[in-house]
Amino acid sequence: MPTSFIRTASIAIACLIGMITKSQALYNSAVGLQGAQYSAAAYCLYEDVGNWACGPACNANRDLTYVWRVKNPSKASFMYAGYSPSQDQIVVSFRGTNGLDYANWVTNSDSRTKTYPYGGNVIQVSRDIRAKYGADKKFFVTGHSLGGALATLAALDIKRQLGLGANEITLYTYGQPRVGDEGMANHIMRELANYIRVTHYDDTVAHVPPFVSGYKHGGFEVWYKSERHDGYYTECSNYAGQSENGQCSNSLWFKTGITAHLSYVGIPISDNCYRKQPSNTLAEANITEDIVYELVPPIQQVVSIEEAFLN
User: Which interval of the chain is the signal sequence (predicted)?
Assistant: First the structure.
């Protein structure tokens, strides 16, 4: 039997179980590494990010320029945006939970519907950068943990308000929690064609709030299934109107890992800076296993969105 026939048949079978999809054309491990470093830079000191001199996270993508920063003190949140000449794209990155930052963990654990915390600021920054470098520039949006949830909402907002086409915006998230119910997940998958959701081994944050509570992930999942970052990953499709794919991280019986959440694609993602942004509380601390074990169990909803956001 011809080898080409066997290969074609194998791919067809794999497609039927949802493990080989067009996401294979979307995901690139080099881009995954770039995105992780952009996400890591959001944890660095505000001033250092503005100068794009924050340490390893900035050095990995040296040419980012025209960097804008936005803080939301009441939510203890932070994002930055800039332009990369080598990648010819506008980069938007959101910080995840900052150590013991109380306001951030309140956002994580509050189950009430709340307004997207950045609103017009992200859109204005995006418009300003695009006006300077060209209206044809595409967007790369990213974030880790809670930052991944915010990045998802931002990508939807940027696409809608700037009138972008499906292939003009790319979203890579790392260890993001679920951001909404099935309706929200379906909306995300219809709107964002280039949405890669990277998970790592048994990272527990990627599985909260629990699926049984009515929450659902969107996006194509790329699961790095080794705790030690051996480079091997599995891709799993997710489709609007269907249950979450069970072939990637959902295939693990126990998903309680914290160490896996603290690093992605070999990067200590919340601790890859010369200087980190301090917590807004009296205690300044890196994300550690003890902290996350204490605070993750009460999480009911990481971020939600008002119905008006989708209109």
Answer: 1-25
pTM of the model: 0.80
Report the C-alpha gap between 300 and 110 in whole angstroms: 7
Q: What average pLDDT does range 160-186 have in this prediction?
A: 91
Q: Which fold has domain 22-310?
A: Rossmann fold (3.40.50)
pLDDT tens digits, one per residue of 204-230: 889 888 877 788 999 999 999 988 888
Backbone φ and ψ of 240, nearest 5°? -60, 135
Can you give the residue ranges of every domain in the chain? 22-310
Q: What is the average pLDDT across 147-157?
A: 92
Q: What does the mean pLDDT of the chain come to?
A: 77
CA angle centred on 177, ends 42 and 53, rounded to 5°: 10
